[in-house]
Each structure stands twice: as structure tokens, then as C-alpha cells.
């Protein structure tokens, strides 16, 4: 592992994106989002996932020079067409409108459609929570997971995240996939020739497998059996409500030239409009931690560090990509 300052890592990511044709705005936003994923410990969608974005630009799955179109569909509804670009840039373009709508109505929703996969979903919830709002985020992805006993992929890993503001501290953010594990963990195990735990995936024959290579040709399983599948289906419904592709119809995120065209749903809630308060929530979180010994990583992370450790081989690969 190599320790690198966040600014240096961000610059490497930005330059690598510029090398494959990303415009300057998209390169900066995605570089910052990538490094933020590393800083919060969500490395499966950090630097290693950036190479999926780089390949997406090269192969045409991500449109170059895409300009998101933001529309106020109703008083509390923001609709953004990412135009086959990045969900992160579509979000940043619409963030001011979402904040305004949330303050005006007490609660407001943002839908992003026609985008590449969302990356770290907690990024969206975290940024909205930093503005003082309670945030809920959901996104679908190309089909990688079984549902309801199906022996093939029906839904994406369809993550869900939420963020709670903490005055003077990093928001509490919970971010999890609906699958037993992230697809990238299966891919990493296959590349390393390592087995995967039972209950993660089915092989191409529709039977459970611990062979990561077979799992790549099969399908992931939802967490908690049908309960995780139920969550994934709700995510699918909300993420695609504005017309984004259903997971089963979405193009792959890691091959071909077509955009996955997936959707992201974000809900903002202004706590000042309700009888409860952030101070009341903060007091409850402190009670859970101090009086009941609740230990959650999201509770313990109160700020972001200035440096992060990155796998040395991955960092060298990124340095090479930034110079091409």
C-alpha cells in the first residue's frame, strides 16, 4: 500500500479522465467523487472502479462533452437527463435546484436518468446532508442479481444510501447494496483466483457456487434472501420512475459501446420543517453509542482525512493512465 495525499490522488484521477476525453467539468467532479469514496473506505467504487469509467469513455459507454438537462417538473420534483454522461455531474448541476425545492416544500425529490452507473451512492446522500438535509438515495444498475428464485440476473445490485447531518461533523452516511456483495468483489476474487463465500452467487447452471469465475458467468444473490430482493425491487421502481432503463434492459457497464442508461433517485428532507430536530437526532445517536454500546462505522467517522492508502499496483496503473 502507498500513502498519498487526497489532492495528489484527485489530480491523478482528473488527468487520467482528461486523457480519455472527459471534459474538464466531468473530470473534476468524478475525480473528487472517486477520492471521496476512498476516504470513506468504500474502495470497491473508488480508484479501482475509476478504470471502468476510463474504459467507458474509450468505448463510448459514457458520452464525451455531455451537458445534463435539468427540469423542474413540479414544485418538489427535479428531473435531470444526464444524456448518457455521468450521474455525478448531473447531480451537481441539479443540486442547487434540489436544495431550493426542499427548503420551499420541506421535502423534494430528484431523478437522474440516462446516465452511467452511479459510483459511490453515499456521495449523493453525503453532499445533500452537508447542506443540512436528511437525504435518501437509490440507484439501479445493469442486471447482475437474481430475484425471487430466478436462476439468472433480473435486477442490479441496486444500492440504497441515506445521510443524516451532524453540525460540525461529517454526516452519518449508510450505504449498502441490495446484493450479498458488490459485483466488483466477485470480479476481484476471480482475478486473484480466490473462492467466494457461500450465499454470494449462483453459477451459470443456476446453482450456488463458491467459484468466483463461475459466479461472473452466473448471477449474484440478494442479501437476506427474499428480503434483500424486496429492497432491490423498491430501488428499481423509484430509480426508473423518470424513464431510466430497467436493470434487465440496461447495457453492461463494463463492455460494449452503449450507455447503461440507468437511474438515480434522491430524496431531500428539511428537518427544520418538522417537530423533531437535528439536535434531537444527534442526542439520540450519542445515546445509542454511549449508553447502548452501538458501534457503527458511520457513527465513528466524523471527518475525512487528508491522505489515504492505495494499493501500490493500482496507484502505478493510475499514474500510467494519467500520462497517456
Topology:
Blueprint: E1 2-5, H1 6-19, H2 24-39, H3 47-59, E2 69-74, E3 77-85, H4 87-105, E4 107-115, H5 122-129, E5 134-139, E6 160-166, E7 169-176, H6 183-192, E8 201-202, E9 208-209, H7 212-216, E10 219-220, H8 226-239, E11 262-269, H9 278-290, H10 297-300, E12 307-310, H11 312-323
Parallel strand pairs: 3-4
Antiparallel strand pairs: 1-12, 2-3, 4-11, 5-6, 5-11, 6-7, 8-9, 8-10
Helix pairs in contact: 1-2, 1-11
Which CATH class?
Alpha Beta
Number of strands: 12
Q: Please report the number of helical segments.
A: 11
Biggest sheet details: 7 strands, mixed
In N-to-C order, the SSE pattern is EHHHEEHEHEEEHEEHEHEHHEH
Using only CA atoms, what is the Rg?
A: 19 Å
CATH level-4 homologous superfamily:
Malate/L-lactate/L-sulpholactate dehydrogenase, NADPH binding domain
- Oligomeric state of shown chains: single chain
Overall, the morphology is globular
Percent helix, as a range, is: 25-40%
- Supply the CATH architecture: 2-Layer Sandwich
Low-pLDDT segments, ≥5 res: none
Question: In the CATH scheme, what's the topology name?
Answer: Ribosomal Protein S8, Chain: A, domain 1
Task: Give the overall pLDDT as a whole number.
Answer: 96
Q: How much β-strand is present in the residues?
A: 15-25%
Give, in spatial order, the strands making up the sheet with the most strands: 2-3-4-11-5-6-7
**Through-space gap between termini:** 23 Å
Indicate the structural class. Answer: alpha+beta
- Counted up, domains total 1
